[in-house]
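Bug #77: duplicate submission created two jobs. Keeping one. Sequence:
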Amino acid sequence: MAAVTYEYMNPNYKETLDREWWVTSYQLMPDPEYLEKIKNKDPSVTEVDASCRQLQGSRIEILSEMMAGNPHITAIDLRGNGFDADGLYALVQALKTMPKVAKLNLRNNCCRNQGVEALGEYLKTNSTLVELNINENNLGDEGAKALAEGLKANETLKSLDLSLNYIGDEGAKAIAAMLDVNKTLTSLTISGNEIQDAELRKKCRSRKASGAAFYAKGPSVEGYPSCLKPIN
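Kept job's structure:
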């Protein structure tokens, strides 16, 4: 099997890999033609579905670099990849240069610490994102505080899913304070957390969950739509 070199990779991670391994092993990256379209900012690619692709480490950084500056992408689905704070930080740097991203699905990754802080800072000035799903990311109270701080200044996000993130009373206090300021957010899902204070729970649930969180279309696989859907 011939090897293939992806010249558009970050030089720090540039690799020459067996094509079969790169394309098919664990369904890692989308196929090369699709990646080239993203790299070349093909206007036909407006939604990026890279869900459940094992995009940890350099892989999420490579994809982020290829999306950077893209004026056409409006929706990004990266759920189920398991990337960490560094991966989220790299993604946020790309998002800052993408003027049309309205929907972002980060469900079931490990986006916390510095990564979530970067996302919170991004939300302070972003004016395009309307749906954010960051369900199942082990944010904890500190992550909730970082996002809440960013959302105090945000005027466009309408739907936010923070379910299953180990958020306790301290994080809930920050979210409640944000809701006093932010009048744009209309749907907040915060179920499956660890909020003990009944009044805080009530306040955090005051924005009705509409069920509008972003999921890519495709067959459901163990709760994750399109996880096994080929991308081309």
